[in-house]
Amino acid sequence: MYCYMDLRYVVLPIIYLIFKCMHFQLKPWGHFDDLWKTDQNPIGKIAFFFLIIISTLLFLLTSIKLPLRMTIHSIHFQAGDFSGPLAISLLCSIFLPQSSFWTAFPIIICISPWFSSLVNMLQSFLYWFYRTLQAIPTLNIICFTQQEGNLEIEAVEIEGSEDQLLVEMTLVQNSSVHEAYCLDGSMPAYHLHRGFGAGASNWLLQFEGGGWCNDIESCLERAKTRRGSTLYMNKLQVFSGILSNNASLNPDFYNWNRVKIRYCDGASFAGDAKFDNGTSLLYFRGQRIWQAIILDLLPKGLGIARKALLSGCSAGGLASFLHCDNFTSYLPPNSSVKCLSDAGFFLDIRDIALNHTIRSFYEDLIYLQGVEQNLDKNCTSSSSFPKQCFFPQYMLTYIRTPFFILNSAYDVYQFHNILVPSSADLHGHWNHCKLNISECNTDQINILQGLRKSMLAALRFFYNYSRRGGMFINSCFAHCQSESQDTWFAADSPRMHNKNIAEAVGDWYFSRNITKEIDCAYPCDSTCHNLIG
C-alpha cells in the first residue's frame, strides 16, 4: 500500500500548541467578537488572525505530500488541491472549544479516507442531474440509439460467464484543476483493479480505443455517446485478456495492478484545445486527461512501480506510441518500463482510389484538436511535414522506451477505413469482401496482400535494428487482440511458431526470449479466427 502524509494535517495542532504555549485561550465562534473588542493580549489577537489566514490558504490552495516511503521522485507539491477533511477541521477549530479540538481532530483524520469517495459520489450525482436536465429534449433519442448500438456488445460481454471480472469506474476528482475534461465537459475516468502477491508493485495501464473525430459536427455527436462523455459509459467494465486476474488466462500480468483508461476525447489522448462558439462547447483535452489520470494514480502506488507496461488497443494503441516516453518520465529511474500497441500501427497509405484518405483525416483532427504541439519534438523538428509524426511509422524511430507492436497485417479497421473507405468504393464492389474474406475475388486478395506488404515495409527498420523491441504481426483478419480472451490466451488462440500472443508478449517483457514474429501471408495461418464481419 502506498500512503501519503499531507503536511497540512499538522497545521492545526501546531496552531493550538502555539497558543497553549502563549497561554492564549481560543474561544468558540460565539465569543469571537469579545476576543476582538478586548484590549487584552493584542499580540495574541494579531497572531490568531494571521495564523488563521495562513492556515486557510494552506488548506484551500496548496498541498505538500510526503510518501511514507519517500524518494525524491515521489514528493508531490500541488497548488489548488482542496482537502475536504482539512477544511472541516478548520471549521471545527473555530466553532469548537479548545478542549474539544483534541478529540474532534483525530476523529476527522481517522475517517478522512472516505471523504473523497463521498465527495466523488456527490459530484457525480449533481453533475449527472445537471446534464440530465440539460438533455431532456433529446433524452429519448439518445437512450434509444445507445441501447440499440450497445445491446449486442453488452450481451456478448456478460452472458454466459459467471466468472468475469467487473471493475468499477473511478472518476478523476481533481480533473478541473488540470482543466482535463471529456468532449462534453464531464470528468475523465479509469477502472483500477488492484494487484496482489508478487505483482502488487507492478502496473499495467491500458488505453481504451474507439476511433476519432476530426470536425465539429462529428465531435458534437460523439460528445453525446460513451466515446465523448463518462456520463454515458458503463460504470462496470469487463476485465479480460491482458486485463484478466486469472493466472490460467493471463499468466504474466494477472496479479499486477491493472488499469483501463477510458477514452472520451477523440484524439488518442493527444489534443489540447477548446471550441466555443456561444452555442456549442467542446473540450479537446486528451493530453490533459492523460496527465490528470497519471497524477491520480501516482499516489495510489504507480509512483513506486517496480515494473510497468503501457498498452492500448486501436486508437488507444496509437496513444501508446504517443505517450510511451512520457509515461516513463513519471516513474522511478530504476523501474522496468515498457510499452505495447495493439492494432495501433495505422499506416500512411493511399486508398484504392489513390487518395490519402487517412492522412487528410488526421490532418483535420490534428488542426481541430491542437495535437501538433504534443507530438514528439524530435520527430516534428526532423520532418518537413510535422503532422506526419501522428503516424506510428514516423514516430517509432524516436521512441526510446522498449516497445512491442502487436498487429494484424490485414488489420480489419485499416482494411475497411483506410485501404477501402466508403468514399473510395461508391458502388459497393467491396461490400461482400468486407463481410466475408471468402467472398473476395483474386484482384481484391492481391490488393489486401499489398496492405500486408506496406505494413511490413513500414516495420522493416524496427524489425532489423531495434534490439529491445518486439513484435507479433500475424495474418489474421482481426482488430485488437489483447483484450479478447479468445485471441490473447486460449486453447484456440492464434499462434506463430507454437506461441500465442500472451506468451510472445510475456517472453518479450521479461526478456525470456527474443520475440519478433512475422506470419506468412494469408491464407496460410490455420489458427486465425478471421472474424471480420
UniProtKB/TrEMBL annotation:
Enzyme class: hydrolase
Entry keyword Secreted: yes
Pfam families: PAE
Any one Gene Ontology BP term: cell wall organization
Keywords: Cell wall, Cell wall biogenesis/degradation, Hydrolase, Membrane, Secreted, Transmembrane, Transmembrane helix
Superkingdom of origin: Eukaryota
Main location: secreted
GO molecular function: hydrolase activity
Cellular location(s): Secreted, Cell wall
Transmembrane segments: 7-26, 46-68, 102-130
Entry EC number(s): 3.1.1.-
Job of this protein: Hydrolyzes acetyl esters in homogalacturonan regions of pectin. In type I primary cell wall, galacturonic acid residues of pectin can be acetylated at the O-2 and O-3 positions. Decreasing the degree of acetylation of pectin gels in vitro alters their physical properties.
Family: Belongs to the pectinacetylesterase family.
Full protein name: Pectin acetylesterase
Organism listed in the record: Nyssa sinensis
